[in-house]
Every structure is written in structure tokens, then in C-alpha cells.
């Protein structure tokens, strides 16, 4: 049976996953990719190091699969969206890649929000700019690094860089192209869209656009040497990881609300007509004439990871030594907390929020008799509440018949049940562990004719699913708590800028 390689590059880990054409996962290999934060709000990484880590993961995945490299019919990549990966005019990396957690452009976005830029961008591109959007980052580089700005030859996203490393070809797909500079009506790059941000001199640096399941090149001899792939293996264009995750769990379909509980709170639904609203991003879906409406914020399980790193370090050290799971070790604490009521509410705004990057996280209702499990329960609840904030906006704009969930949190049955109760709706979790990589593999398979389309491939592989039903009594409790959670956030909103100013008064060098 032929196999397919899907590459999934997240914000901290790059993965290579090999699948049989029937959807069976044969192997997965991971490599951590170090981040660099040389200044406050900067989050970068070395582009060459990213490619080397990805190549190493591919080589290991091939070895683990028990198959020959020649059995891999095609490869496609997905990766974090937004951010910025630049090449100079000689097609060499132009500085580090900038990740979507970067917020150096905050002051620029704040200034844009006070004039017509937000209004004009929403009317033309279907979305208001945010701090890690290519538009904002390029404007920041123009202002602060003019020499680098003048040397820009090609504007790429992360997965486009990996495609270039594999095949030597430069380009992007429809989903990735729509992060800043496309007209939402035509779904094509528009010079006047760049003019809104004062970036029209860079229009020629935008990459050519192809379908996600289109063959855009073949593995080069150099890439074959580094990865163990066979030279000449077809490379498909690939797609934005948000869309890949929805596709990989069978959720890139009209009427299906796809939720990704990962670093970002991702909530998306496909439509056959564009619908613009400041509460979501109206971006391109995989196919022309389809739109992917995304309500997002960097406020999901990154908060859970922060809690583990900050308050569970000794347990993490123990599990690291014996190969166990920190999640299993803490399960008893969480289960005990879930069985009792609590006054604690948590706003998961440690890295961003639906209110923008000026918001900050908070525990409220905390007392001396609460323990770590109570706080951890509040963190999980806050994550689910933040998703509900976005989901409610999408429910107002689109007819939704089904909700599907993926991401690290979807592996915890108690957490999934919380989602069902918080949303007061059935939630489906599929058997696909690596949904984003599988979405990329489906594009690779469609590119070489194994599937008629990526979506058809998702339908025919026969992934199993479990549906979690809401418990009415629990939903009623969560509904009351969510209402209070929202009112507290609204009350804090005017104070967040003042809170941030406290860092500038900290004589001890705090931030």
C-alpha cells in the first residue's frame, strides 16, 4: 500500500508523520525547535535550524515506519500560520523566522485601531490586523529595520519555507495567502490591500498561489540527502495548520464547527459565501469559492502548559525520568476538583485574548483553602470558556450542525466532557491523533490521485469517532459561571492598560 508523509510544524515542535493511504498512522517522529526571545514580545527561531530539525524528524519517521522511502508517494507540509519567514532576493533566509506568538508590533496595531486602517482592512481583506499578522510585522520591520526591509525578496509563511527546503520552489496556497493581503471577495492578492498598511512596494515579493493539493515541485537531491526521502518524490503545496487540523478530523466541511484546543484557541467553520465581522477572520478555505471563518485568540492550552511549568515542575521532572505522563499523575487532583464546586474563575489571557494583547490573565475567587487541583480545574474551565466566547460569535453568523474537537486537550475525556457541558452541545472527537499532519497528508494524497479531493480523502478513510453529550445539570452550572466570567472580564477591560503600565514603574527590572 502506498504511504504519505505529512509534516506538521508547530510553535515548539516539528513533526513528521507517515500514514498509509487508508489513514493508518505508521510512524511519527518529533524534534523540538528552540525559540529565541531576545527582547520582550519577540518570539523567533532560526530558519536553518528549523529545517534541520524537520529533516531529522523525517529521517527518523521513515526508519520507524518499516517501509522504504520509495513507498512514500507524496509529501506536504503544514505549519503555524501568520508570523513571517523572509527570504532575500537571492532566496536566502533574511533574519530569523518570526512566530505567531510574537507581539512586537503591538504599538503599530494599537495605532492602526485608532484610525481607518482597521476599518479599511476589514472591508477589503475580511479581517482586522493583529500583532502577529504579516501586515503588522512587515510594518514593524519597515519602521525599525529599514535595511532588512529593503532586502526583502520573498514573503513566506512557515510551511512555505519547508516546501522551499524540500523542493526548491517558492509559493504558497490559498489558505495561507489570506492572512493579510487578499481581497476576501476575489480570494486573490490585491495591491490595494497592501496599500492599506503602506506596504504596496512589496507586492512583487508575495508568493505565487497554488491549490493545497497541487504538486508544486519534487524533493531535490540535497533534501533527499538530508531527509532520507527519495529524490523526485512529489511535493504538494500544503496548507495553514488551522485548516489542516480541521481537515484531518473531518471538520473542513460546511456546517461543521471545528475546534482546535492547542496553543491558540481556534474555532472555525466553512461557508459558501464570505461573511465579514470583526469577531472573526474571513479567510480562504482550501477550495475557491469557499471561506474559512476563524474566531481565534492565543488563549487556549498554552495556559495549561504554563501552569504545569510553573507549579508542577517536580512532577514533570519525575515523569521525565520514568517516561510516565504528567497528565496521568495529575488526573486524581483534577478529578477530585471536578467533583466539587469552587469560587475560582480563571481568565486564560497569559499570552493574548479576544480583547487583544493588552489583556492579562487572572485568578479571581481564590481562597486559602483552595489547592492546586482547584486552580488547575479553573485553568481548564477558563480555556473552555474562552473557546465558548469565540463559538458564540460563530453560532450567530453561521448554521452549525456539528462540533468537532482536536488538539492536545482532546485526549483528556474529562476535558472533552467539560467542552460539551460548557458549549451545551454534543462534541465529537475522532481517532486521529495527529490531525494537522493528517490534513497535510490528505493534500499530498489528493495531489497524486489517491483521493479525489482532500475532503473526500477525509471521508473515505473511515476514522472512528466518539461523541460526548452535554449533561444538562452541568451545563446549567457552567452557563451561570460563564456569565460571571464574562462580566468580570468586561469590568477588567478598562484597567488592563493601566495594569501593564505597572511594569514600567517596577524599579526591580520586572516586565
UniProtKB/TrEMBL annotation:
Matching entries from Pfam families are given as: FGGY_C (PF02782), FGGY_N (PF00370)
- Residue ranges of every copy of the Carbohydrate kinase FGGY N-terminal domain listed in the record: 4-248
GO MF: kinase activity; phosphotransferase activity, alcohol group as acceptor
A single GO BP term for this record reads:
carbohydrate metabolic process
Q: Tell me if Transferase is a UniProt keyword of this record.
A: yes
Q: Which residues form a coiled coil?
A: none
What are the Carbohydrate kinase FGGY C-terminal domain coordinates in residue numbering? 257-447
Q: What is this protein called?
A: L-xylulokinase
Give the family this protein belongs to, as stated in its UniProt record: Belongs to the FGGY kinase family.
Tell me the keywords, alphabetical order. Kinase, Transferase
Q: Which domain of life is it from?
A: Bacteria
Amino acid at each position: 500500500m502506498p504511504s504519505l508523509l505529512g509534516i506538521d510544524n508547530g510553535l515548539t515542535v516539528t513533526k513528521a508523520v507517515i500514514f498509509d493511504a487508508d489513514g493508518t498512522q505508521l510512524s511519527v517522529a518529533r524534534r523540538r525547535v528552540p525559540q529565541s526571545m531576545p527582547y520582550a514580545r519577540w518570539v523567533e527561531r532560526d530558519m536553518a535550524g528549523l529545517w534541520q530539525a524537520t529533516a531529522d524528524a523525517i529521517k527518523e519517521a521513515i526508519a520507524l515506519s518499516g517501509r522504504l522511502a520509495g513507498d512514500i508517494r507524496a509529501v506536504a507540509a503544514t505549519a503555524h500560520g501568520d508570523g513571517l519567514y523572509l527570504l532575500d532576493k537571492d532566496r536566502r533566509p533574511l533574519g530569523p523566522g518570526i512566530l505567531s506568538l510574537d507581539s512586537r508590533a503591538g504599538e503599530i496595531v494599537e495605532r492602526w485601531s485608532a484610525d481607518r486602517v482597521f476599518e479599511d482592512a476589514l472591508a477589503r481583506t475580511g479581517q482586522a490586523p493583529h500583532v502577529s499578522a504579516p501586515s503588522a510585522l512587515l510594518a514593524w520591520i519597515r519602521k525599525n529595520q529599514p535595511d532588512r526591509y529593503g532586502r526583502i525578496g520573498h514573503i513566506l509563511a512557515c510551511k512555505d519555507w519547508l516546501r522551499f527546503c524540500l523542493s526548491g520552489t517558492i509559493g504558497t496556497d490559498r489558505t495561507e495567502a489570506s492572512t493579510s493581503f487578499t481581497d476576501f471577495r476575489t480570494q486573490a492578492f490585491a495591491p490595494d490591500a497592501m496599500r492599506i498598511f503602506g506596504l504596496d512596494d512589496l507586492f512583487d515579493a508575495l508568493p505565487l498561489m497554488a491549490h493545497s493539493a497541487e504538486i508544486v515541485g519534487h524533493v531535490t537531491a540535497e533534501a533527499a540527502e538530508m531527509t532520507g526521502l527519495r529524490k523526485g518524490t512529489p511535493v504538494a503545496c500544503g496548507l495553514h495548520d488551522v485548516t489542516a487540523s480541521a481537515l484531518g478530523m473531518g471538520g473542513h466541511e460546511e456546517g461543521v464547527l471545528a475546534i482546535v484546543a492547542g496553543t491558540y484557541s481556534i474555532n472555525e467553520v466553512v461557508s459558501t459565501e464570505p461573511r465579514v465581522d470583526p469577531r472573526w477572520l474571513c479567510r480562504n478555505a482550501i477550495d475557491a469559492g469557499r471561506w474559512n471563518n476563524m474566531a481565534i485568540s492565543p488563549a487556549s492550552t498554552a495556559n495549561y502548559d504554563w501552569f504545569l511549568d510553573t507549579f508542577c515542575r517536580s512532577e514533570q521532572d519525575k515523569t521525565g525520568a520514568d517516561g510516565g505522563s504528567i497528565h496521568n499523575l495529575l488526573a486524581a487532583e483534577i478529578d477530585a476538583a471536578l467533583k466539587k464546586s469552587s469560587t475560582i474563575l480563571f481568565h486564560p489571557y497569559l499570552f493574548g485574548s479576544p480583547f487583544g494583547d493588552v489583556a492579562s490573565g487572572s485568578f479571581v475567587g481564590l481562597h486559602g483553602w483552595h489547592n492546586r487541583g482547584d486552580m488547575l480545574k479553573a485553568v481548564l474551565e477558563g480555556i473552555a470558556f474562552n473557546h465558548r466566547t469565540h463559538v458564540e460569535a460563530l453560532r450567530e453568523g453561521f448554521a452549525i450542525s456539528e462540533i468537532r474537537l482536536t488538539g492536545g486537550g482532546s485526549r483528556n475525556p474529562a476535558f472533552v466532557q467539560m467542552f460539551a457541558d460548557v458549549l451545551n452541545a454534543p462534541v465529537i472527537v475522532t481517532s486521529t491523533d495527529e490531525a494537522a499532519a493528517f490534513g497535510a497528508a490528505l493534500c499530498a494524497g489528493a495531489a497524486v490521485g489517491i483521493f479525489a479531493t482532500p475532503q473526500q480523502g477525509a471521508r473515505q478513510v473511515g476514522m472512528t469517532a466518539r461523541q460526548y453529550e452535554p449533561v444538562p445539570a452541568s451545563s446549567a452550572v457552567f452557563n451561570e459561571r460563564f456569565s460571571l466570567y464574562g462580566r468580570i472580564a468586561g469590568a477588567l477591560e478598562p484597567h488592563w492598560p493601566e495594569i501593564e503600565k505597572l511594569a514600567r514603574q517596577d524599579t526591580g527590572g520586572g516586565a
